[in-house]
Amino acid sequence: MPEARPRACPITETLDLVGERWSLLVLREVFMGVRRYAGIHANTGAPRDVLTKRLRSLEASGILERRRYQDRPPRFEYHLTSAGQALEPVLIGLREWGLRYLENPPPAPRFLHTCGADVETRVVCAECGDPLEGGGLVTVLDGTDGL
């Protein structure tokens, strides 16, 4: 019997970078404009050693960049790179899921468009633009069947 191998895919690789609670909460804070260590620490509740490790990991992976805002002593802010900004729909999707399916969701930050309306995620066909609602998805595994 062949040995089972985990399926390799971009989801697996992405989760290695951001699929951990503290990483996602750090990203939430930076998306909301909290860029300094003390604010991120206060709003996430992450232990300091874990927070430092996550910030370094997100920086090393090209999701965040550190920018100096003070020389003496040296102090830094964290800013999203273009790769980090591209994770915005993921955070919005997690927020929407929680509001819809958690029994008693806590108050959630609102994500507003510049026009003032709430933002929502939508999955649409890249070719025709039709939304994916209740089916219509066909999975192709590029020559691997995962069995």
List descriptors.
147 residues; mainly alpha; 2 strands; 9% strand
Structural summary, described in words:
The protein has 147 residues and is mainly alpha-helical. The protein has 6 helices and 2 strands. Strands 1-2 form a two-stranded antiparallel ribbon. Strand 1 (64-70) and strand 2 form a beta hairpin. The protein is globular.
Summarize the model shown.
With 147 residues, the chain is mainly alpha-helical.
Cα distance, first to last residue? 11 Å
Compute the CA-based radius of gyration. 19 Å
SS elements, strand count: 2
Task: Tell me the series of helices and strands, N- to C-terminal.
Answer: HHHHEEHH
Helix content: 40-55%
- Globally, the shape reads globular
Largest β-sheet summary: 2 strands, antiparallel
Q: Average the pLDDT over all residues and give the rounded result.
A: 90
The oligomeric state is single chain
Secondary structure class reads mainly alpha
Annotation field: number of helices: 6
Strand content: 5-15%
